[in-house]
Structures are given as structure tokens and as C-alpha cells.
């Protein structure tokens, strides 16, 4: 893999805004902004590298299934910060397998050629619009001969077509939250609507704050219509603490008065950083895994990353190398739920940047790649999205 210079397209901010990427700037602490979308450079990969990543992800998905079984059998819910009232529904949906849609692995692709799992964003992964937009970039810059590992759009449409007969109600409600101010969640849900409509589904875009409850109909929209199927960009670890959590757990299903949720609540098993020590316990020394341990477990790591079980974008994480703190993520209040410790791995350095490989999955299938890079060792909310191209 290499990082190359590329001539940015003339008028690129207007181009990507028209394609849905309205949040292409990141606000800095001093009030200034920097581009989040970065097309002055690109990463090049070979077909062999892509095939290796794809094969690794297929295997990792199978390993995640074994890890979910293990968490339930070993009753690790408390250790993973999952409250007891959510456990029965997690177990039930794990067995009944209501529809799931997508996820995103984060991998390190180090200078030694090793492909190491950092985490799996299984419930509310973002950077989806960026991944779609970069396909237009490769076509504009490289023409019809430009290639990219990017089947995310096609596989999402195919997945919606497959799910259409299984979804209760006459429409899918796509929920975002008004608490998110950058526009990222809104546009991510908007893009998901585009894929669902292309598959022939009727969709309604709605803030989760407008979701109502009727004694007999169950959840309703702002027009009083029964809400039977929901895709939400609102994490389950927040939902289970909301006022409507009891009703959401009680009315979970495809019967009248019930609601089918995507992603399903069992995704709490996979989106939790606690999945990392579970995978290491089940598959020690696997070439795609890093040694990982729950907080308080004995280990001999001197270079490691301490991560909260439920944090996002590097929040409240700590990087220690040879016993010394070298970087720390922003404080966003995570950590009370507990931590895991994962061996530090080299992300590689490209012109002073450290890339993380975001590999998308649709259902259980690897679907494509989006790369974010940071100048620091923590990939946080100041990272940049950089497109890629397959160049053999």
C-alpha cells in the first residue's frame, strides 16, 4: 500500500456536497475548520492486498458468531457493561436472528504487512456516505479504468431486496437523532433511504425524538401511523436507558403492535469493545487479532491501547508505548462502563499520517473499504477520509 499525491478536482466541495457529503469540514477547538474529506492524496492497494483483506473479513465474521455464543454461554454481560434488563432480548434475538444490515471493521495494516482487527462497529457505523462518494471520485479522476474495493451500494440494495418480504408494515422508518449537529447522521440515514428505495421499499425519514407510543398500536409516527419496521442510527447502549426502553424491549418483533428494529439488539454483543478480549480468548495467536484483555485481567503488555467498552472515535482512549503514555483521545465522558486493554500495533506512517482501514460488511459479506487517517496515533474526530484506488 502506498499514499500518493492526486490533483484535487476543480470545485470539489460543491461536487461532494451535491453527492450528500455536507459534513466535509471538521471544526477545530479554536473555532477554525479543516477539511475532513481529503482528495489531495489517495491510498493505492493491489488486488492481492484486497483479496487478503476480504478473506480475513469472511473469517472474522465466522469468529464473531462463535464469540457471541461464548458471551451468552459464559454470561459475560455484566463484564461488558450490558445491563441485566437487556439480556433476555439479546439472547432471544441472537437465536431468532431478526434481520441485520451492515457493519464496519476497523483494521490496522502495518508496515510488516499484518492485517490486525482494532474493533468492529456493528450497530451504528458511519463513514458510509464518504465510502459511496469516493466511488464518484475514482471515476472522475481515473475514468472508466479506475477501480476500487467498493461494492457497498450494490450489496446494500441487494440486501434490502432480500429483506423486503420479511419486514412488517408498509414502510421502513429511518430514524436519526437531532442531538447530532454535524449532519453526518442525517445524511447517513438519507443515503440508507436511497439504497432502500432503489430496492423498492417505501421509507420515512424521522427524528427518533418524534417516535410516539400508542397503547394498542405500539410505536407510532407523528401522524399516528403504526411504526412496524425501523432502521435507526441511534445506538442500543443509549436506547436501553431511554424512557421508552421498556416498551421497545417488550414490543420487539413482527407481530401486530410490535416493531422490528435494525440493527437488532443482539448487535450489543459485537459493537462492544468487550468482543476483543473474547475473540483473543477463543482464538489466541490468530494472525488477524491483537492480544486483548478486560480491565483487571492479568497481562504483560507494555505497549497497549486502553479503550472504554462503549466509546466512539477514540474518545477516552489511552495509548501507552514501552510503559509511557504517548497519546490520549478526547474526553467525552466514557469509561464508567469499564475498559479493555489491547496490544498496541503500528498503523504505519505515510507522510506523517496513520491510516485505519474501515472494511464494510453487508449482512455477513465483506463489501468495501474506506480509509481514515490521523496525524496522531489516536484515530479521533479530527481524522480525515482519504479515497483509495486499486492499482496493479
UniProtKB/TrEMBL annotation:
GO MF term list: ATP binding; ligase activity; metal ion binding
The answer to keyword Nucleotide-binding applying to this record is yes
Determine if rRNA-binding is one of this entry's keywords. no
| Residue ranges constituting the Glutathionylspermidine synthase pre-ATP-grasp-like domain according to the UniProt record | 12-390
**Coiled coil segments of this chain:** none
Identify the keywords attached in UniProt to this record, alphabetized: ATP-binding, Ligase, Magnesium, Metal-binding, Nucleotide-binding
Q: Name the chain's protein.
A: Glutathionylspermidine synthase family protein
Q: Which organism is it from?
A: Solirubrobacter ginsenosidimutans
Amino acid at each position: 500500500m502506498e499514499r500518493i499525491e492526486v490533483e484535487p478536482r476543480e470545485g470539489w466541495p460543491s461536487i461532494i456536497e451535491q453527492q450528500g457529503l455536507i459534513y466535509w469540514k471538521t471544526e477545530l477547538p479554536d473555532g477554525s475548520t479543516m477539511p475532513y474529506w481529503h482528495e489531495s492524496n489517495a491510498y493505492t492497494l493491489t488486488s492481492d492486498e484486497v483479496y487478503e483483506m476480504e478473506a480475513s473479513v469472511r473469517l472474522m465474521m465466522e469468529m464473531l458468531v462463535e464469540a457471541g455464543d461464548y458471551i451468552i454461554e459464559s454470561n459475560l454481560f455484566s463484564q461488558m457493561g450490558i445491563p441485566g434488563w437487556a439480556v433476555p432480548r439479546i439472547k432471544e434475538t441472537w437465536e431468532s436472528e431478526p434481520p441485520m444490515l451492515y457493519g464496519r471493521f476497523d483494521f490496522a495494516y502495518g508496515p510488516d504487512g499484518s492485517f490486525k482487527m482494532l474493533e468492529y462497529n456493528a450497530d451504528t457505523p458511519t463513514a458510509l456516505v464518504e465510502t459511496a462518494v469516493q466511488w464518484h471520485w475514482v471515476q472522475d479522476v481515473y475514468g472508466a479504468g479506475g477501480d476500487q474495493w467498493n461494492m457497498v451500494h450494490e450489496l446494500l440494495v441487494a440486501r434490502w431486496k432480500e429483506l423486503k418480504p420479511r419486514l412488517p408494515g408498509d414502510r421502513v422508518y429511518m430514524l436519526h437523532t437531532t442531538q447530532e449537529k454535524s449532519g453526518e447522521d442525517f445524511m447517513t440515514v438519507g443515503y440508507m433511504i436511497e439504497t432502500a428505495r432503489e430496492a423498492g421499499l417505501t421509507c420515512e425519514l424521522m427524528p427518533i425524538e418524534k417516535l410516539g407510543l400508542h397503547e394498542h398500536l405500539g410505536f407510532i409516527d407523528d401522524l399516528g401511523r403504526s411504526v412496524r419496521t425501523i432502521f435507526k442510527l441511534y445506538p442500543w447502549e443509549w436506547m436501553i436507558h431511554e424512557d421508552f426502553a421498556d416498551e421497545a424491549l417488550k414490543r420487539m418483533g413482527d407481530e401486530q403492535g410490535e416493531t422490528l428494529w435494525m440493527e437488532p439488539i443482539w448487535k450489543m454483543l459485537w459493537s462492544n469493545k468487550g468482543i476483543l478480549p473474547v475473540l483473543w480468548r477463543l482464538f489466541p495467536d490468530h494472525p488477524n487479532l491483537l492480544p486483548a484483555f478486560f480491565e483487571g485481567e492479568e497481562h504483560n503488555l507494555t505497549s497497549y491501547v486502553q479503550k472504554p467498552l462503549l466509546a466512539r472515535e477514540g474518545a477516552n482512549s489511552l495509548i501507552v508505548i514501552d510503559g509511557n503514555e504517548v497519546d490520549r483521545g478526547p474526553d467525552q465522558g466514557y469509561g464508567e462502563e469499564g475498559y479493555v486493554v489491547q496490544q498496541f500495533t503500528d498503523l504505519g506512517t505515510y507522510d506523517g499520517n496513520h491510516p485505519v482501514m474501515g472494511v464494510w460488511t453487508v449482512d455477513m459479506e465483506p463489501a468495501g473499504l474506506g480509509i481514515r487517517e490521523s496525524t496522531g496515533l489516536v484515530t479521533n474526530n479530527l481524522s480525515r477520509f482519504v479515497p483509495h484506488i486499486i492499482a496493479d
